[in-house]
Amino acid sequence: MSDCIFCKIGAGDMESDIIWESDSAVGFRDINPQAPTHILIIPREHVPMIADANEEHQELLGDLILTAKKIAEQEGIAENGYRLVFNNGDHGRQDVYHIHLHLLGGRQLTWPPG
Ligand code: DGP
Question: Of 34, 45, 41, whose CA–CA distance to 16 is shortest?
Answer without folding.
Answer: 41
